[in-house]
């Protein structure tokens, strides 16, 4: 049975592996430089289709690399 520390390390390795994807890495870097960016700003910054961007944001959020909050009718994303 794996120890809690091993499980955490495996989770961290999985999260970091997600950033090997070039678009996700760029998206994460943009969010680190601009925390609290909303979705349509990210579309403009990354010049990416909305569907592609939301797909990758969902993956990063599901794995705990990105968090979002809804504020004034907009979803803001944070690393």
Describe this structure in words.
- The protein is α+β, with helices and mostly antiparallel strands.
- It contains 4 helices and 3 strands.
- Strands 1-3-2 form a 3-stranded antiparallel beta sheet.
- It is globular.
Give descriptors for this structure.
single chain, 79 residues, alpha+beta, 3-stranded antiparallel beta sheet, globular
Helix content: 55-70%
Radius of gyration: 14 Å
Distance between the termini: 32 Å
DSSP, total strands: 3
Q: Main sheet: which strands, in order across?
A: 1-3-2
Low-confidence stretches: none
Sheet-strand content, in percent, reads 15-25%
Q: In sequence order, what are the helices and strands, one letter per element?
A: HHEHHEE
**How would the global form be characterised?**
globular
Q: Please state the average pLDDT score.
A: 90
Q: Given the structure, what is the number of helices?
A: 4
Largest sheet properties: 3 strands, antiparallel
Overall structural class, as computed from helix and strand content, comes to alpha+beta
Question: Topology of this protein?
Answer:
Elements: H1 4-18, H2 22-33, E1 37-38, H3 39-46, H4 50-62, E2 67-71, E3 74-78
Antiparallel strand pairs: 1-3, 2-3
Helix pairs in contact: 2-4
């Amino acid at each position: 049975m794996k120890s809690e520390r091993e499980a955490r390390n495996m989770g961290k390795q999985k999260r970091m592996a997600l950033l090997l994807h070039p678009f996700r890495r760029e998206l994460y870097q943009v969010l680190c430089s601009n925390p609290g960016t909303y979705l349509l700003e990210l579309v403009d910054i990354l010049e990416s289709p909305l569907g592609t961007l939301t797909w990758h944001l969902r993956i990063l959020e599901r794995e705990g690399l990105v968090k979002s909050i809804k504020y004034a009718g907009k979803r803001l994303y944070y690393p």
